[in-house]
Amino acid sequence: MGWADRPRCDQLPAWGQLRALSQALKTGYDVRVALASDAGRVQRFSQQAPEVFADLSKNWIDAGIENALFDLAEQAGVAAHRDAMFAGESINNTEQRAVLHTLLRAPAGTPQAAPAWDAALSEVHQTLDAMLAYAEQVRADSRITDIVNIGIGGSDLGPQMVVRALDAYAAPGRRLHFVSNVDGHELDAVLRRLKPESSLFLIASKTFTTAETMANARSALAWFQREGGTEVARHFTALSSNVEAARAFGIANIFGFWDWVGGRYSLWSAIGLPIAIAIGAERFRELLAGAHAMDRHFRDAPLQANLPVRLGLLDVWYRNFLGFTSRSIAPYHSALARLPAYLQQLEMESNGKRVDRHGGALPYGTSPVLWGEPGTNGQHAYFQMLHQGTDVVPVEFVAVREATHSLPGHQSALLANALAQAQALMQGKPDAGGHRDFPGNRPSSFLLLQQLTPRSLGALIALQEHRVFTSGSVWGINSFDQWGVELGKVLAKDIEPRLASGDASGLDASTAGLLQRLRA
Question: Which of 294, 288, 372, 381 shows the shortest CA–CA distance to 337?
Fold first, then answer.
């Protein structure tokens, strides 16, 4: 039976087994007791994957539950679905596209499943070599001090997150700016700090038609010309597959990518040009190498020893059997400040679906809500709710063992806080008075990197990509389309001219009333 023809996950034998296990667990499972009574628990629920160590021992899970989850993955065809992705099959069935972002980080000459993908890999490396050569050219040009990436969604979140995360590796004398919002305040705040002769604008849009991106691009071009800028071809570069439109804009340097690269998986492609300019070609290749190492782990490791699979199945367990509707991301490294926002798009745009891959309505939940802030800031904000709130929210701590700064005392304080918060959530502290009572028994996972390097960051991102694939595969949804972003765009095109004309005909009463108030 092919992966696409499997019964829905809630009709599989393992689903019923997991439901029974969850009912038994809800009657009184206590992770404190589990840790105290099982000397092998930490080892059983810990794993070293490429560049990432994970301790899952504080989660509401035991060996029987995890084995049932592995059974669910087997019955749902997760491994077959994974193999189909790596083989280049059109697993994005609503758009009839392959899903091969993993090809973007495969070394040159890596044998592929079909000759067509061997040719595609060759194209990937031709584009990569050209893009990295251009990045080095920009880095060598002392006249360029400010690089402005204009994109949105995957053309913004991934590059922005990585550039900030790898700031310790950035070349001095270059300032990277990211503009995504169609709100002119964002672009204006950047332009006020620039000079045309020292600025380079990267216009990141696969189609070169994305409304927000093109509005910002046109305004940037108008500013450039108004302020006396010349040589548009030198100061504007396109990251797009629409060569004709980019050239019509006046752009000569154009780096494209392929329809089998989804937006939220595109930082590994030409969309990663701002990353390459920030950290250089060699380190960009290290970023790819870290992701490729995790790709091999996901592709080759048995399910029982496959960290992305274990995390994805834990997500299914929490969402569908314990009713946890959100997960908090707590990166204990300030450079990972944009990681929660990046993961929001990765998971919620991929798996925020209410129908299966065949279009049938689902009777069970899919993507949880992801949210978070860097530690220790979060401890002085929303951690109150995590410790003493009425909802149980699993927390995912991300920590880095070695700092890249030399300030004494800071790293040990930071790591002590990360360990203490995970311990406090689990351990709790009883208080008869009530207000100081910490119930404890709150689940968390702990991901640890030795250092925050291009290689380890690449592995961490790929880990999260494949984890999302795993849960989406179990749920039987297409994790690689995003039709939910379209309706609002269509309606905005209808409403914008109405703001000028005042025509409210055909609008609902609320929208019409708001439109008139905005016009007034």
Answer: 372
